[in-house]
Amino acid sequence: MNAKTTTAFPTAALIDGEWVTSKKTFPVLDPATGDKLADVPDLTAEDAQRAIDAAYKAFPAWSAKPAKERGAILERWCDLVLAETEALAQLMTAEQGKPLTEARGEVAYGASFIDWFAEEGKRAYGHTIPTTAASRRYVTIKQPIGVCAAITPWNFPIAMITRKVASALAAGCTIIVKPSEETPLCALAVAKLALDAGVPPGVLNVITTQDAAGVGKALTADARVRKLTFTGSTEVGKILYRQSADTIKKLTLELGGNAPLLVFDDADLDRAVAGAMASKFRNAGQTCVCANRILVQSGIYDRFVAALKAEIAKLHVAPGRDPKSTVGPLINADAITKVKSLLADATKRGAKIELGGEPDTHGPLFFSPTVITGVEPTMAIANEEIFGPVASIIRFETEADAIRIANDTPFGLAAYLFSQDIGRAWRVAEALETGMVGVNEGLFSNEVAPFGGVKQSGLGREGAQEGLEEYLETKFLCLGGITG
């Protein structure tokens, strides 16, 4: 790797290639300590309008570049991100809290999307269509949709940006990013590296703000923004969906989940426990594809619970910068309150805490890894995203019961199942009402496979060839007068 490295990351917003400050700012805090890391500009809807202006102005030249040239810039961006892995990981752990090992993994994961779309942008193929008349020829071409807006979450503050931005830029679009106010520093860092790689002014803009509603409304109301991509809660996704209706924007929505993880009697116990650990406790349980409900068949139930408790007891709760840390803090006080509330409701209704169940002593935003059994499908803990290190376990008897319980939710993002019966695995995977299914795997997200959900978990897909299509329009060309 010959990319030049730098660790002087900005704390200013980015509009039209310029680093923008403002009199009004807000602090970015370390969730492990509560210490202030930096102040960043608290921009307004008017600033968002300036960013739209810049992206609209930059679009013709960027979209006219050959895909190979855009891809070369993205490759340089990927190299720079990878060269800065340690600095970016340290920054991510500081502002988001996840253990450094996970943060380093996310940097590589985020870079993989840049690398993938640098190549995939060259494959925005149209096709020829057999004619219906001798004098005509039919072809389709793919063209970038235009100016895009991305609203990104705090739980994956680099990967959720690169997955959206790299696909947009590869397609020839320009984009405005509004990162979470909890984690703006990672967004600004990767944006700086994009500029260093040669992304022209206005092609990528980053708006830092605490006025999410006002900036969101500015982005959805402007007809020049032709595409909105959002990762976050279903509640906010519905608001953005409604606000985008007047301008008929194309939408990619990656919303809430309630992922079931099904363990059948014939599962490989060790693999099932390892899969549950990977799915449930990554990022302290703060991912949209976390196993929110662990459904275990009666014949393996007791052995699974005992084995899972033994593995959870090995987890080390500590600030993410501690080399031994495997579980860091939750993102804020509201997250702690929600976990406590869900556990209190479940125990009140008969569930039993087998392990943990209490805040950890490392600080106010740390919570002990927890196992709760006797959970019923009607409990709040089985119907709301926990977003914390809590393994909620439901017993089931038959395959039909498991499918019924798993699908009894308005959400449909991810699901997992563990079985050594190939017929059952295939049958259940087809029956689960989710956009993604891990079969004997607890982690499956990668750049080459489409990511997204069904039902109220969203619209569209990110990553893979499908992710590029989300930023392209298909144009049909009818060529007449071919024969005399």
UniProtKB/TrEMBL annotation:
SUPFAM superfamilies, per the entry: ALDH-like
Chloroplast in keyword set: no
Active site feature: 254
Classification via InterPro entries: Ald_DH/histidinol_DH, Ald_DH_C, Ald_DH_CS_CYS, Ald_DH_CS_GLU, Ald_DH_N, Aldehyde_DH_dom, Aldehyde_DH_Superfamily, Succ_semiAld_DH
Keyword Oxidoreductase belongs to the record: yes
Superkingdom, taxonomy of origin: Bacteria
Gene Ontology BP term (one): gamma-aminobutyric acid catabolic process
Keywords for the protein's UniProt record, in alphabetical order: Oxidation, Oxidoreductase, Potassium
Coiled-coil positions: none
Gene3D superfamilies reported for this sequence: Aldehyde Dehydrogenase, Chain A, domain 1 (3.40.605.10), Aldehyde Dehydrogenase, Chain A, domain 2 (3.40.309.10)
Molecular function, one GO term: succinate-semialdehyde dehydrogenase (NAD+) activity
Domain Aldehyde dehydrogenase: 19-476
PROSITE patterns: ALDEHYDE_DEHYDR_CYS, ALDEHYDE_DEHYDR_GLU
Family in the record: Belongs to the aldehyde dehydrogenase family.
Name of the protein described by the UniProt record: Succinic semialdehyde dehydrogenase
Organism name: Hyphomicrobium denitrificans (strain ATCC 51888 / DSM 1869 / NCIMB 11706 / TK 0415)
